[in-house]
Amino acid sequence: MPNYPRGNRDLMRGINRAILLNAIKTNGPISRVVLAHLSGLSPATVTAITGDLIDENLVFEKETGDSSGGRRPILLALNPRGGFVIGVKLMEDHAVGALTDLNAAVLYKDSIIFPDGSLDSVISALVSLVNTLIYQGGIHKKQLLGVGIGLAGVVDSSSGMLRQSPFFGWKDTPLRDLLHARLHVPIHIDNDVNTLTLGEKWLGAGLPEDNFVVITVGRGIGMGMVINGQIVRGKSGGAGEFGHIVVDPDGPPCECGKRGCLEAFLSDKALLATARKEIGQDVLDIDDLIGRASAGNPAAHRVLTRAGTLLGRQIANLINILDPKLIVISGEGVRMGEAFFSALRVAVEQNVMPGLAKDSEIRIAAWEDDVWARGAASVVIGELFNSPIQKEEATIK
Ligand SMILES: [Zn+2]
């Protein structure tokens, strides 16, 4: 059951709480007086709600060193250790998890390999991973605000249903409820690129922007969109299948069953196949391809330039449609190197409608192996800062 506020008073309090929590997060350390001024709330409301936040350990008081003779003002700051969350990235044969604080700083990380791809095995492995993270991270379960899970496929995050999974072949699986029944903590599941996008919205590059797009390059090509401050999921959670735009109907077969999708040219597997065909079977992997290009191998350079151009053209189309302020390129593909990204930028400039590109920035995200798990964690963190009217119905079980 969605946890609706009991009445208008509770709803107002919930909204005000979110306003103040966000203001403290963005502007803290900050005094109650300035907080009242910034938020437009009465000093009495600010005192009452910040009192609750202090009791919950989410906010703490600190004295400033800056005193102009009188009483030192007491400032309020967010307590990043006021609660903890776990983020998990679920892959076809294993899962990577991270226990983080409220800034999504990783305290402990671990991974687990699934003995097989059955639903029971995967659920049991995830339960074991979460329990290990709680134990090894040295926190009590009651300090855990929730577990965020990101995975490939069509995910209906509001009902917690995994509609379709390319890895496991499961359909309409109530993944959130199954995990909740075993772990008894709030669980949030979402498409992995959406979790990454929400991570950028709450804690990363997209933080100040209301209109941005995250494109992931790596095993596949994914996309997450934040439009007017809201993530766009579509009618069934399937929005953002950027990788399955058909760029050549006569192109190579794609995992989705069609031919010539963007992903059929640009996924790690597809790119490696092209590189082996054009350079030689001794190309070991994508890193080897990138290494050869930066060492001046013209064929390797050509393969990466062509790939960057192909992606850049489709990004130009995206800019024409969405007019985003920021495009974040993320995923393992951020290592693609100069040949790929300079071709990509040139193709965007050449193909975008004149006037639209000048205010759109393309940013290559920093990449570490725990980015996916941190993204999943930040979905739970984001819920903390959402006001009740922004919370989607029954998003968290
Ligand atoms: Zn496809």
Task: List the topology elements.
Layout (H helix, E strand, L loop, with lengths): L7 H20 L2 E2 H8 L3 H13 L3 E5 L10 E5 L5 E7 L3 E7 L5 E8 L5 H18 L7 E8 L2 E3 L4 E4 L6 E3 L1 H9 L3 E5 H12 L8 E6 L3 E7 L2 E2 L30 H5 L1 H11 L7 H9 L3 H25 L3 E5 L7 H14 L9 E4 L6 H15 L12
Parallel strand pairs: 4-7, 7-11, 12-15, 15-16
Antiparallel strand pairs: 1-3, 2-3, 4-5, 5-6, 8-9, 9-10, 12-13, 13-14
Helix pairs in contact: 1-3, 2-3, 4-5, 6-12, 8-10, 9-10, 10-11
The chain binds zinc ion.
Zinc ion binds next to loops.
Give a short summary of the structure:
The chain is built from 12 helices and 16 strands. The protein has helices spanning 8-27, 32-39, 43-55, 119-136, 175-183, 192-203, 262-266, 268-278, 286-294, 298-322, 338-351, 371-385, and strands spanning 30-31, 59-63, 74-78, 84-90, 94-100, 106-113, 144-151, 154-156, 161-164, 171-173, 187-191, 212-217, 221-227, 230-231, 326-330, 361-364. The strands form 4 sheets. Strands 6-5-4-7-11 form a 5-stranded mixed sheet. A 5-stranded mixed sheet has the order 14-13-12-15-16.
